[in-house]
Structures are given as C-alpha cells and as structure tokens.
Amino acid sequence: AGAFTLTPKRPPVNRNDMTNIKFNFQNKNVVVTGGASGIGFKITQSFLEAGGNVVIWDYSENALQTARNELSKFASQVTVQQVDVTNRASVAQAIAALPAPVDIVIN
Q1: To 5 degrees, how large is the angle CA 16–CA 38–CA 49?
Q2: Is the dihedral of CA 24, 27, 28, 29 positive or negative?
Q3: For 45-62, what is the mean pLDDT?
Q4: By the 8 A CB rule, do 102 and 33 touch?
C-alpha cells in the first residue's frame, strides 16, 4: 500500500500575542472618515494611542462631539471636522482646513 509521512504540526498561534502588537505612528498625520463612532472610532483610538495625530471626518455633529469628549486625553492630537464625504465641496473644504499634510487616510 502507499506510504505517507506525517509532518509535525506547527505550534498553535497564541492569539493573545497578536493583540499585544505595538505600532508607532509618532509624527504621522491621519484622516479617519467615519472616525467618530463604531469601527472608525476604534481605529481613531488606535492611531492616537500609537502617537498619531488624527483628524476625524464625520457627518454627524453629535458623534463628533461625543468622540471629542471621549478622546479628551488626546486633545493635542485630535481634530474633528464635520464632513460629508459624498459631497465634493464638503471634502474640498475639509482638505483646505487640514492642520498638516496627511500621511495616512482611512476610509
């Protein structure tokens, strides 16, 4: 009959190690669209915790105010702008108001 060889299994991945990955975005300027709530807010938090400067673009003024309050410890790193990304004029106005050149855009 046919012979076969067993190959050793890889050691299991420790999922806890995956959550401890540290990134450094010091001096990087980031725009996060929809960054005032949900997944966008978590992305915003992650960039801020990694030292990035984040501009949050969001349509909802209420969500922007809530985000500003919740991110108050990052006040020197975060800027919020009410932007309708489906409207070219709104986006153009937001781009013109950016505080610094952008390194990363999360849309």
Answers
A1: 55
A2: positive
A3: 97
A4: no
